[in-house]
């Protein structure tokens, strides 16, 4: 077995590989850019090597720099993670020339299957059903338009060397094809150093389902079930689960066997993923093969008990698989939610900054700790559940503008899908993140969405269910009552604490009343509290009541309560006269007032937001790529105004209405903060 492995990656996947290597007794080497000097993967590894400036195309994807790190550290093998150089055949060739093992498939398999165009040709030759498209490379934007017209809109423009949603655009008309072609080329060049683009038909109402394969160099190959990855935004996965709620055993078997056959046809040896588009009749079409470890591999590990990273390392060491197809059993259900540094209230645009608070829920396996996706003892049964969080950040760390915005993958496991969803809801409620915009509220909303609960989602789920973007969650009255009762009980605790403050003036004793009015989400509830040593009974003015018990104390930012025998987890912040409470995707300002205070509050005027309708504000921290207009130009609704790049993604900002450009405050190359003014329009 190898004595030392270098991880040619960063963030959570580097940390994930380090965990398995440590379990196997293998020393690890991290690489890092200037931006990652204090990163978690650098701290976790046995040693670390600096490789250059923050931009990936000057550090993490520069083969010569990575090779020098390998030589200086004496690493015998390299795990590439995902992204960066993971599917770069030239990198694999460079390793082979140095006599260093690549923890991934052979060069030939990477070249044949890692390239989207070549892999599709091989799939066709193997008799695999594929999506209609243009297999050749596209030379310019006008050729992209012509080909798109021949295929028929909508079409998907894709980077040949792409992955993770980078270099992908959907075009529904000629203009979108032109814009999408150029943006796809730019993103592909920046992310992968390869700007080749191809086009295929975009299948409407599809489900994205993928098969995990595992092969060795001795001709053995197995599949480890499927993953449902249909909930995507901008072609990037957000929620994954295993198994799929849509597939039946016959379709699963057919897809799995076909995937293994395809892998064997190219001499594949390692973990890999064959992706399919599946229609409503369970017809499946080969999409692409990812010749690397997938981001969402933890859900497969949770339902199979197989450590995929360990298996990759063993295969790279020349060992045969010890797992046969008949040994693979799908146990229970697993769900993964990707925590992104993206602000859902700003159209999911990237958010950067320091994590002033980062407290994931405890990782548990039915009360036992998980290690690298494998149970410590038998997998839990009955009402058991598991929580796993794969992450590459820590409290006080900084989220950089240079890399992918994903900062953690929160996973839950339970015997049934409903139980796994409920475990995920509670885990999300207990996940504390402050300092940056993040998508935790949106993930909570998805977990409660009827379509997700039914398991009938398609890849259009987010676009169809949130056409105007995510604006938060409106909780039903039953949930509001539970939160109102809890807030009243917590407010009473805080009031009692305030009565005990030392140094009070004589004859100024503070008394805590029992009657309160709780206001939240434009509703008010008049309540009366009766407290005892075990908790509080909160009575509403309609005669109903709730029993609230908790050990919450003022200052705690997470409250775990029992309301009428059911758990309730709230993130709690202090505001004047009450709390900021976040639960199940809702962000609530909750005021707890005396009846007289509530009466007077109704007379207070509402604060009016400033008028920014004549300004184009930068929606995220990022770099201005280009300005598409000049002072005096008359712009139309939907017209491109400028392009902003952040976290390896280009974002085209468009005019919301007709207007005339009065002033331009930024130029190409400028780095802007959130809400910096880019353009001003005439009044």
Describe, in plain words, how this protein is organized in 3D.
This protein is an alpha+beta fold. The termini are far apart. 49% of the residues are buried.
Set down the secondary structure blueprint.
Blueprint: E1 4-7, H1 11-23, E2 27-33, H2 40-44, E3 47-52, H3 63-73, E4 77-79, H4 89-98, E5 101-102, H5 107-114, H6 116-125, E6 133-134, H7 141-151, E7 155-163, E8 166-171, H8 174-192, E9 197-201, E10 207-215, E11 221-233, E12 236-242, H9 249-265, E13 270-278, E14 284-290, H10 297-304, H11 308-316, E15 333-340, E16 342-343, E17 349-350, E18 353-354, E19 357-359, E20 364-365, E21 386-391, E22 398-399, E23 406-414, H12 417-429, E24 432-434, H13 440-447, H14 450-454, H15 461-465, H16 477-499, E25 515-520, E26 523-532, E27 535-540, E28 545-550, E29 558-563, E30 566-575, E31 578-583, E32 586-593, H17 595-601, E33 615-617, E34 622-627, E35 634-635, E36 640-646, E37 649-654, E38 659-664, E39 671-672, E40 677-681
Parallel strand pairs: 1-2, 1-4, 2-3, 4-5
Antiparallel strand pairs: 6-9, 7-8, 7-9, 10-11, 10-13, 11-12, 12-15, 13-14, 15-23, 16-17, 18-22, 19-24, 20-21, 21-23, 25-26, 25-32, 26-27, 27-28, 28-29, 29-30, 30-31, 31-32, 33-40, 34-36, 34-39, 35-38, 36-37, 38-40
Short summary of the structure?
The chain is α+β, with helices and mostly antiparallel strands and 683 residues long.
Shape: globular
Overall average pLDDT: 90
Report how far the terminal alpha carbons are from each other.
Answer: 71 Å
Note poorly predicted spans.
none
- How helix-rich are the residues, as a percent range? 25-40%
Across the major sheet, the strand order is 14-13-10-11-12-15-23-21-20
DSSP summary, beta strand count:
40
The total of helices stands at: 17
Q: Structural class of the secondary structure composition?
A: alpha+beta
Computed Rg:
27 Å
Strand content: 25-35%
Q: What does the largest sheet look like?
A: 9 strands, antiparallel
């Amino acid at each position: 077995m190898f004595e030392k492995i270098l991880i040619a990656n960063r963030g959570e996947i580097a940390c994930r590989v380090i965990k398995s290597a440590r379990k196997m007794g293998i020393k690890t080497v991290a690489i890092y850019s200037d931006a990652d000097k204090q990163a978690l993967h650098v701290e976790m590894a046995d040693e670390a090597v600096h490789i250059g400036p923050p931009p990936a195309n000057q550090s993490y994807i520069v083969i010569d720099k990575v090779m020098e790190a390998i030589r200086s550290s004496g690493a015998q093998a390299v795990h590439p993670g995902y992204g960066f150089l993971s599917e770069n055949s030239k990198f694999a060739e460079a390793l082979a020339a140095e006599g260093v093992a690549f923890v991934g498939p052979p060069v030939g398999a990477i070249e044949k299957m890692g390239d989207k165009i070549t892999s599709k040709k091989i799939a066709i030759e193997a008799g695999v059903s594929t999506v209609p498209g243009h297999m050749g490379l596209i030379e310019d934007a006008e050729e992209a338009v012509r080909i798109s017209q021949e295929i028929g809109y909508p079409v998907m423009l894709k980077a040949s060397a792409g992955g993770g949603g980078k270099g992908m655009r959907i075009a529904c008309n000629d203009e979108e094809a032109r814009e999408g072609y150029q943006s796809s080329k730019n993103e592909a060049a920046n992310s992968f150093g390869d700007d080749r683009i191809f086009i295929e038909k975009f299948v409407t109402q599809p489900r994205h389902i993928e098969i995990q394969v595992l092969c060795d160099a001795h001709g053995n190959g197995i599949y480890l079930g499927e993953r449902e990855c249909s909930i995507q935004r901008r072609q990037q996965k957000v929620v994954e689960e295993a198994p799929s709620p849509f597939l039946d055993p016959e379709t699963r078997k057919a897809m799995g066997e076909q995937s293994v056959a395809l892998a064997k046809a190219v001499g594949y040896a390692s973990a890999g993923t064959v992706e399919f588009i599946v229609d409503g009749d369970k017809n499946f079409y080969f999409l692409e093969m990812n010749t690397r470890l997938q981001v969402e591999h933890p859900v497969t590990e949770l339902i199979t008990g197989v450590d995929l990273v360990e298996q990759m390392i063993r295969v790279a060491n020349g060992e045969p698989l010890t797992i046969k197809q008949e040994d693979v059993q799908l146990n229970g259900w697993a769900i993964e939610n990707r925590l992104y540094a993206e602000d859902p209230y700003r159209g999911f645009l990237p958010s950067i900054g320091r994590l002033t608070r980062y407290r994931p829920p405890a990782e548990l396996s039915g009360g036992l700790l998980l290690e690298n996706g494998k149970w410590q003892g038998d997998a839990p049964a009955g009402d058991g559940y598991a929580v796993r969080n794969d992450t590459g950040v820590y409290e006080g760390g900084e989220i950089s503008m240079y890399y992918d915005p994903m900062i953690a993958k929160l996973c839950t496991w339970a015997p049934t899908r409903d139980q796994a969803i409920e475990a995920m809801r509670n885990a999300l409620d207990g996940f504390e993140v402050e300092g940056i915009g993040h998508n935790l509220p949106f993930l909570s909303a998805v977990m409660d969405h009827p379509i997700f609960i039914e398991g009938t989602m398609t890849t259009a789920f987010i676009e169809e269910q949130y056409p105007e973007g995510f604006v938060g969650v409106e909780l039903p009255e039953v949930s509001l009552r539970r939160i109102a009762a809890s807030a009243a009980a917590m407010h009473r605790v805080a009031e009692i604490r305030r009565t005990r403050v030392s140094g009070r003036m004589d004859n100024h004793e503070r008394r805590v009343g029992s009657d309160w009015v709780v206001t939240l989400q434009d509703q008010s509830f008049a309540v009366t509290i009766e407290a005892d040593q075990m908790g509080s009974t909160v009575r509403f003015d309609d005669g109903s009541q709730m029993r609230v018990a908790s050990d919450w104390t003022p200052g705690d930012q997470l409250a775990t309560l029992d309301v009428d025998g059911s758990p309730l987890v709230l993130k709690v912040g202090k505001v004047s006269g009450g709390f900021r409470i976040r639960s199940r995707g809702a962000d609530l300002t909750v005021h707890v007032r005396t009846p007289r205070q509530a009466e007077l509050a109704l007379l207070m005027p509402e604060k009016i937001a400033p008028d920014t309708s004549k300004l184009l504000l930068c929606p995220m921290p990022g770099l201005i790529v280009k300005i598409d207009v000049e002072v005096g130009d008359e712009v139309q609704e939907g017209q491109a105004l400028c392009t902003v790049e952040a976290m390896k993604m280009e974002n085209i900002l468009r005019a919301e209405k007709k207007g005339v450009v009065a002033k331009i405050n930024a130029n190409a190359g400028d780095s802007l903060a959130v809400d910096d003014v880019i353009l001003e329009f005439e009044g």
